[in-house]
Design goal:
about 500 residues
Length: about 500
């Protein structure tokens, strides 16, 4: 038994401790101040996700503008446009790879702050670009920052949040990324493409200023034997009226048992590799739903299909729907549970992708397709598709189906995969494994984004949507067979679940 902390009555570590629940009045009084501080620290961190979401969809309004640029050094061909759209994901993969080292070397908070350097440099390059190489380098640097924050922020948030609000806070990285994308779509209606890059610098600066005042993760500090700082950080996060000794002892005991480096022999232990494999497959399957190419080429997709509203307006509407959907997910994640939302999410995305594929294949053709992007396809031999008229309500189908897809993704497979990654990964492997998850995710995104235009030119725009629909069926089966329900469980309880090999927390 460990020594009592600060002279308090000691207790053995118990994964499922029988602790009497506090009264409603006490829970409200203590929880309000506790959550206020956790919310503040979370907000400071997820500003990095805002910048990530903003940078991810930067190409949506910019590619069409550059395709018609009068400057020959910036006028993009189809191939150059595909590289400009996809090179972000290569940078994000490199950022995820670097997070495997920085997450445990610098810590979660400092790694997030470090991402501001490549992010600011990338926006500056794109704002002042006078050649393709500056656009590609700037895009890759913002992608690197996005991959780094994507690996570090969910871990930081999950480690500072109490179990009662960890689900809601776990949705905030995705929420802020969506808000960043919506901000880009909205500003794209007002600003030229260079000023869009200048506007991206603001959130980066605010993030650094706020995070410099926030504490580091208590779990990370304990893993570096900085116990006093860890206790101070936990006390600040939970508030002056909260009794943090019991929670601190739990975290301290877990960290002490896992203080050594992970060996290859231990990595082959089921309790260690099972959660890592589940997290990796979730990140892989999330990208195979088609979210990244759809977001990157959103305006171009609308340009090449028969739509009732202007493509820029359609893109902004989809961004607003995405934001609303993530808000709903954040509010329901700790009520409905993770698995229920994953089922609903995959079913919605399946219906949306199937509808988009059928509409492109059988529906009306666009009157003015975007010939430069090459997303359009000539009618199949022997099959004549009617031309769309501007007033045909059938042309609302692409917008409505895309809204359904974004809504489904944003309510489940968007935020929950990041949350589960941070929840189920074992503490000893959390820094490395989270970086590996991001690496796999963005390499998959690069492959899809780069091949999207090639596939549509060869087989038609309907082909990738049919493929994405099939992946959503796989996601339904994977959720039912492999994903555990983590609602209301502490990180220590979740780790014990995998360690004991249980199929359910209730057994």
């Amino acid at each position: 038994m460990q020594e009592p902390l600060l002279g308090a009555e000691g207790r053995d570590y118990d994964t499922f401790p029988e602790k009497p629940p506090p009264s409603p009045g006490e829970r409200t009084r203590v929880g309000v101040l506790q959550n206020k501080r956790v919310f503040l620290a979370t907000f400071a961190a997820v500003l990095g996700n805002f910048s990530f979401g903003y940078a991810l969809v930067y190409t949506s309004p910019v590619i069409p503008a550059l395709e018609h640029s009068s400057d020959p050094n910036l006028n993009l061909t189809k191939t150059q446009a595909s590289w400009f759209g996809s090179v972000f994901t290569l940078g994000a993969a490199a950022g995820g790879l670097s997070a495997m080292v920085l997450n445990d070397l610098l810590g979660r908070k400092l790694s997030i702050m470090f991402s501001a350097v490549p992010s600011a440099a990338g926006y500056a390059l794109m704002a002042g670009a006078h050649g393709l190489w500056m656009l590609l380098l700037g895009r890759m640097l913002t992608g690197f920052a996005g991959g780094l924050t994507a690996a570090c922020i969910p871990v930081y948030v999950s480690e500072i949040a109490p179990p009662s609000v960890r689900g809601a806070l776990g949705a905030t990285p995705q929420l802020m990324a969506v808000f960043g994308s919506l901000s880009l779509y909205a500003l794209g209606l007002l600003l030229p493409w260079r000023w869009l890059a200048v506007a991206g610098e603001g959130p980066v600066l605010v993030m650094v200023l706020l995070l410099s005042c926030m504490p580091n993760s208590p779990r990370f500090l304990l893993s570096k034997s900085r116990d006093v700082e860890a206790l101070q950080a936990l006390a600040w996060l939970r508030g002056p009226d909260a009794d943090t000794r019991w929670e601190f002892e739990q975290i301290q005991d877990t960290v002490r048992r896992q203080s050594s480096h992970l060996s290859w022999a231990e990595a082959r232990d089921p309790h260690m590799y099972r959660p890592i494999v589940i997290a990796l497959l979730m990140r892989f399957l999330q990208q195979l739903t088609g979210i990244t190419p759809i977001l990157v080429y959103l305006q171009s997709i609308f340009d090449s299909t028969a739509v009732l509203l202007p493509p820029k307006v359609d893109a902004a509407i989809v961004g607003a729907v995405r934001l609303l959907s993530v808000l709903i997910a954040a509010l329901t994640m700790d009520l409905a549970g993770r698995k229920a939302l994953l089922f609903v999410s995959a079913a919605g995305m399946f219906a949306a992708n199937l509808t988009l594929g059928l509409y492109v294949h059988f529906g009306p053709k666009s009157l003015a397709p975007n010939s430069t992007m090459g997303l359009e396809r000539e009618a199949l031999a022997g099959t004549e598709q009617p031309l769309a008229t501007p007033t045909s309500y059938l042309t609302l189908v692409p917008l409505l189906a895309t809204m359904l897809f974004i809504m489904g993704y944003a309510m489940g497979w968007g935020p929950i995969t990041w949350l589960l990654m941070s929840e189920i990964l074992p503490l000893r492997a959390r820094g490395v494994a989270s970086g590996l998850c991001v690496l796999v995710s963005w390499l998959t995104a690069f492959a899809l984004t780069k091949s999207f235009l090639l596939v549509t030119n060869a087989f038609g725009l309907q082909a990738p949507f049919f493929f994405f629909a099939a992946v959503c069926l796989v996601n339904l089966a994977f959720t039912g067979c492999c994903v555990p329900e983590t609602k209301g469980r502490s990180l220590e309880q979740i780790e014990s679940f995998f360690r004991t090999g249980r199929r359910s927390f209730l057994h």
